[in-house]
Amino acid sequence: MPSSDPARTAYVVLLRGVNLGRSRRVSSADLREAAAAAGLADPRTYANSGNLVATGARGDDAVADRVAAALAAHLGGDVRALALTADRAAEVLDADPFPDATADHPSQVLVHLAPAPVDAEGVARLAEGHPERFVVADGVLYVDYVDGIGRSRLTSAAIDRATGTWTTGRNWNTLTRLVAMAREAT
């Protein structure tokens, strides 16, 4: 049920590096439980890959920290989380620097989000040796994997070094779906 309370908003919460291989398993049920334990309402997950939409108090800067802490308490280990308001997530989509690619091959366009603005100069240095197209806009890294993600030589570690912070990437289709879910929640 969408929230019409102006004191509440929808958040998109993204986990980093979960459900890849056998390690760092976080089920959708675990993520929804962590969201509830973190004080969020109406938690919904998408694609069992660390994607959550839930509602909480507007202006709450600790959403990601509380979800990560709840996951750590429930599952053990350190899980990084990033939270964006529904409005901020929509702005990231609206800033689409690759409209040709998002129309033609949206699953090959990744948006790398970070807890701090990414280093545009570091990304420019990284781009020099790779065929992918890179754009940094409003603190976010957009990458068009023109030859496909599976063929890319880019690693998470290389992206993190270049951006100067850890990132978590979502393809265009996933981010579009999460924004739609967040709009439904508000």
Structural write-up:
The chain has 186 residues and is an alpha+beta fold. The protein folds into two domains: 94 residues, Alpha-Beta Plaits; 80 residues. The chain is 37% helix and 24% strand.
In brief, what are we looking at here?
It is built from 7 helices and 8 strands. The chain has 186 residues and is α+β, with helices and mostly antiparallel strands. It is globular and about 45 Å long.
> Can you identify the CATH superfamily of the largest domain?
SP0830-like domains
CATH class of the largest domain: Alpha Beta
Compute the number of helices: 7
The major beta sheet can be summarized as: 4 strands, antiparallel
Number of strands: 8
Percent of residues in helices: 25-40%
* Uncertain parts: none
Summed over residues and divided by their number, the pLDDT gives a mean of 92
N-to-C SSE string, H for helix and E for strand: EHEEHEHHEHEEHEH
Question: Which structural category do the helix and sheet elements fall into?
Answer: alpha+beta
Kindly give the count of domains. 2
Radius of gyration: 16 Å
The third-level CATH topology of the largest domain is: Alpha-Beta Plaits
Euclidean distance between termini CA atoms: 9 Å
Principal-axes geometry comes out as globular
